[in-house]
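It is worth pausing here to work through a concrete case rather than discussing structure prediction in the abstract. The textbook approach is simple: state the sequence, then state the predicted structure, then interpret. We follow exactly that order.
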Amino acid sequence: MVTKSGHGYPASTVEATDGEQTGRLIATRRLTRAVFAKQLILLKRYWINTSMLLVTMYVFFAMIFYGGQAAAGPAIESSLDGIVVGFFLFTASLAAFFATAQDIQREAQWGTLEQLFMSPHGIGQVMAVKSVWNVAFSVGLSFVLLSVMLATTDRALSIDVLTITVITVLAVASVLGIGFLFAGLSLLYKRIENVQQIMQFGFIGLIAVPATETSRLMGLLPLSQGSAMLHASMTENVALWEFQAGDLAILTAAGLLYLCAGYLTFHLCVRRARRLGVMGHY
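Step two, the predicted structure:
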């Protein structure tokens, strides 16, 4: 006699399904722990390269701040809050974008890319876990730069960590999708660093022209909606639940749209690279 569970399925089948789900959960947890440990080791080993990103961004900001004060005097004060918010989002975007694309390029150069494909998790899951790390690290790096910028300019912006983190993560998700696109293209065309460098100028333009109520379609572009909402949160003290539902929906939709499109393109590029046999060639 076959014992049935409350769902109407044989109890043995339900137990097997629960066992598979538990096994997947444990495997994902181990993968996450391994990926995070590896990223910490790389961070420690190449700390100069990592810290230079922060130093470069601060020097860039200091040149604009002190140069603007010398050239425009008190006139720069009116736009200083926007500059600080823009640099905060730009740093998070740049770190997430380059990290995603460079993950694939480094694995290919180290000769370990094929091993990731042969792992039981698959390259997609490994890259997804690495993306979680990249976003968390880029947001943390931006908060460090934000504190330094506020100390330099002696400004007092509203820092609601929950609101800023949620908006930044959703805004950076769109850039993450573009990072997946470039990661896939790097499998096929290898050296595309110069094209990646050009993208940062596009990010500056998207952050500098945030979406407004009169131009809702702008919010569907990467970073545009997030830039507008971060500015409102940090300069007008608007909390996450005080934004209009439409603004949150546009921010979420744009982030998921670019992330899914980039991830799909990455998979198509992987299939083509495997078919052409150029996966590990560099």
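Step three, interpretation. The radius of gyration is 22 Å. Residues 18 and 26 are 12 Å apart (CA to CA).
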